[in-house]
Specification:
Order of helices and strands: EHEEEHHEEHHHEEEEHEEHHHHH
Structural class: alpha+beta
Strand order of the largest sheet: 1-2-3-4-6-5
Shape: globular
Helix content: 40-55%
Length: 359
């Protein structure tokens, strides 16, 4: 199994890496006991994961993927993991977690939460590297996943989805306040470095975009179209392909109730918005595959595109990671997303049309 945004770093077996990538010796001993692994013959940190920390473990009991979860409350993680068995029984390609000797899906050790999965073969494939036939198939897979989650809702693992959902629409004034605060953080670094220069320029350009396009923001806080339980991060870092087939859907940390159009559009953006350009042909094929299973209306898709565009326009989360948390792991995402935002803004109507008219 390859985990979100990961590559294998061979030979990482001791504390020669940073604390973020190192399994503390005491934690490892407790993990071996908790999951009855017998021993860990070798372990490899899986680098480039954006949020949580992951390793491949080779043990007498087999090969596993270990995740240390750092950004999701453990009670929510347990809830999310509990639904995977139901999804697997419904034909969704998921990896059900290994339980501890006490039957828990999460081992709490040293203040951290760890979960363990059987290793699954396959490769992460960027959306723009998928042939159109697989792009359409991927859209159908997402729709099937939404339907399976709907069938699981109301059972022992997931509560029923609420009758309605709302979506915050950030006011332009609020976005400008964020930009001003982050701009102050950039200037406080003085000469700074290359990223500071990029961030400072981007913040200035974002102020111009906000002033020019504020009148195009979504109206109201009620998204169009149906809603229900969704994966929350259905994109190439969390998908494994083998032999042209989708082999596994990984990383269920962000399972939640959302408009279906929101997940469709976000998935398309992450999969096919690369190098500052939206591959609208693939986005359209993906949406067409989804609509072959769930006939999502054009109005919902248009609304979803507009809401995600405005969210990207008013959000600075990568800069907040960099300057507030001193976490630079998402710096590359900022520069790529900023380029796409400008391209998207210049072609807002064209992008909405590509989604709405996909069939």
């Amino acid at each position: 199994m390859r985990v979100p945004g990961s590559r294998i770093v061979v030979g990482v077996t001791d504390a020669t890496v940073t604390d973020r990538t190192h399994i503390p010796t005491d934690d490892l001993a407790e993990l071996i006991s908790a999951f009855d692994l017998g021993d860990v013959r070798d372990r490899h940190h899986l680098a480039e994961g954006l949020m949580n920390v992951n390793w491949r473990l080779d043990t007498p009991a087999g090969r596993f993927a270990l995740k240390r979860v750092t950004d999701v409350p453990l009670d929510r993680l347990r809830r999310n993991l509990a639904v995977l068995s139901s999804l697997a029984a419904d034909g969704i390609p998921v990896c059900a977690p290994v339980t501890t000797a006490s039957g828990d899906t999460v081992a709490e050790i040293g203040g951290d939460g760890y979960c363990l999965f059987p290793w699954s073969a396959g490769e992460h494939v960027r959306g723009i590297d998928l042939p159109l036939s697989q792009v359409a198939t991927l859209g159908a897979h997402l729709a099937s996943l939404h339907m399976a989650l709907g069938r699981a809702a109301g059972g022992h693992a997931l509560p029923a989805a609420p009758d309605a959902v709302t979506a915050d629409v950030t006011a332009p004034e609020r976005a400008l306040q964020k930009a001003d605060r982050l701009g102050s953080a950039v200037r406080a670094r003085g000469a700074g470095d290359a990223f500071d220069a990029v961030a400072g320029d981007a913040l200035e350009q974002r102020r111009v975009l906000l002033d020019k396009h504020a009148h195009l923001r979504p109206e109201g806080d009620t998204p169009a179209g149906p809603h229900g339980w969704t994966h929350g991060d259905f994109q190439f870092r969390n998908l494994l392909w083998e032999g042209g087939e989708l082999a596994a859907v990984l990383d269920w940390d962000r399972l939640g109730v959302r408009p279906y159009a929101e997940e469709v559009v976000r998935t398309a953006q992450v999969q096919f918005g690369v190098d500052g350009v939206f591959d609208l042909g693939r986005a359209s094929a993906f949406v067409g595959g989804y609509r072959s299973v769930i006939p999502l209306e054009s109005a919902a898709l248009t609304d979803g595109v507009r809401r995600l565009w405005w969210k990207r326009m008013t959000d600075f989360w990568q800069l907040e990671f960099h300057y507030d948390r001193h976490d630079h792991s998402c710096d590359d995402l900022f520069t790529a997303d900023e380029a796409l935002l400008h391209w998207w803004t210049d072609r807002l109507g064209l992008v909405e049309e590509a989604f709405a008219e996909a069939a």
